[in-house]
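Re: weekly structure request thread

Next one in the queue (327 aa):
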Amino acid sequence: MIINLWNPTYEGIYAAILISYLLGIVHGITPDEHTWPITFSYAVGSYSTKGGAKAGLLFSSGFTVERAIMSEIAALALASFMLYPYFNSIVYIIVGAVMALSGFYIANKLKYPHIHIIEEWLYHAFGIHKGHEEKEKMELEHMENPIMTKVDGEYRPVPLKLAFVHGLIAGFGFGAFALIIYFVIAPNMPIYLGFVPGLMFGLGTMTMQVLAGTAFGLWLTKKKNLTVKGIAFVARGISHFVLSYGGIAFFVAGIITLIFPALWNYQIITGVKIHNLDAIGLPFFLVVLSVVVLGYLGYKINLRKAIQLDYVTKNDRNKEVIENRYI
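Done, posted below.
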């Protein structure tokens, strides 16, 4: 059997399943605005190989669930709404908003809205501060914020569970791969197996996202001149930059393309017969901005902060040497 992932042709269900999985592999490798910025943010923020793999797994699990559901909907010929020009713009706005909120949460820049009567009732109903009435009083008197860290300038842990939710949302992004899965392969499947192409595509993406997440996490563990606390600080700082400012970029791009949908048509044709690389346009440049530019700025700025906070190993206290080595 000859496999053509550029213009898939196949015979039989098993071939369709294999092609769907392989398309997912390619989707996970190529720079995609629906996967890379988010996986990179959560994986790096976990600052370990295990945490990076978990981030990739959680994100792609949400992505896979959404793709399987949409694949079944496409098999039932109910997915035409995804072809509207403003659909991707709306996805960008939602994804961008969630990214930005996550990033500002990590950076301690969010406070939660609350009503004292309801808040006090919740405390007592669920025993949130049982045995710690003084803490409850401080929160109600606005002397302490329960979602803030104790040290000013520190970052909060990256909420990995949110990666799953992010995957569910980002999975609605529409591109060449979704076009093939939803409108070529899924409609040719038996109705009771309509979800399988989307599921296998998601699993293929998951394979590569877990590997990518592991690699991102491993990269940070190699910073031997930083203490464990220093690595965590820099990692969370990078996550904050990519999620916060990358999220704003996605949000703005969504609004602009909603107003000027013709912007989606401006692309540079590369001639490479690989989806996501055959033509580069707004999505590609958003990946570069979020992962490369903002990731580097986040690394550079937070490494300097970590050095200033003395998060360096005992054997290497020369701040100038470290800065010259890594910046």
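The two ends are 50 Å apart (CA to CA). Residues 143-152 have pLDDT under 50 and may be disordered.
Next request, please.
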